[in-house]
Amino acid sequence: MLTESAAPGPLRERLEALLSPVLAAMGYELICVEHQQGGRQRVRLYIDRPEGIGLEDCEQVSRQTSAVLDVNDLIPGEYVLEVSSPGDDRPLVRPDHFSRFVGHRIRVRTLVPLGGRRNFTGTLVEATPESINIDHDGQPLTLRLDQLDMARLAPHLETASPSRGSK
User: How many angstroms separate the CA atoms of 88 and 127, rounded?
Assistant: First the structure.
């Protein structure tokens, strides 16, 4: 639905349907699946759990999902499997993702321009199963989820002042 470089609906949906219960049984949430074609195919899984994701989690999920993907043979040809945490700029894909992050800054890209632009950043004020409300530069903006091409958290990044050295 809303992932950057996501696979066309049917393959991405089949991958999510196959892998979500496997990961849930392991204690992980499958945030989204991306499938990139061209050259060497790449399948990227974004996973999460309440206590966060470490390298060992990614390795464990990679081993398990590799076996499941090999047995089910959904992806034609060779591919590279990547497993990652969603990071600070995590993708927001499903309605429950938006609901979980009300009050946070997000950035979205619409499928078609609205008022001459497609990219918007603001505070997520409200989320329903069908739409989101954003405070964009002090102006309310309501977008239907089916209008979105991409949505991610947009955390404020702290910038460190340049070091002047120690004496």
Answer: 20
The region, left, alpha or beta by phi > 0 then psi within -120 to 50, assigned to residue 7 is beta
Q: Which of 23, 25, 1, 22 is nearest to 97 (CA)?
A: 1
Answer whether residue 160 is part of any domain.
no
- Is residue 18 classed as helix, strand or coil in its secondary structure? helix
Residue 163 lies in a domain: no
Of 28, 57, 84, the residue at which a domain comes to its end is 84
126 and 80 housed in the same domain: no
**Residues 6+ positions from 27 with CB-CB distance below 8 Å:** 49
Is residue 72 one of the residues assigned to a domain? yes
**pLDDT tens per residue across all 167 residues of the chain:** 444 444 445 788 899 999 999 999 999 999 999 888 877 889 999 999 989 999 999 999 999 999 999 999 888 888 999 999 998 899 999 999 999 999 999 999 999 999 999 999 999 999 999 999 999 989 999 999 999 999 999 987 665 545 444 43
Give per-residue burial for 154-163: e unless 16+ CB within 10 Å, then b: beeeeeeeee
Of 59, 84, 109, which residue is a domain's last?
Answer: 84
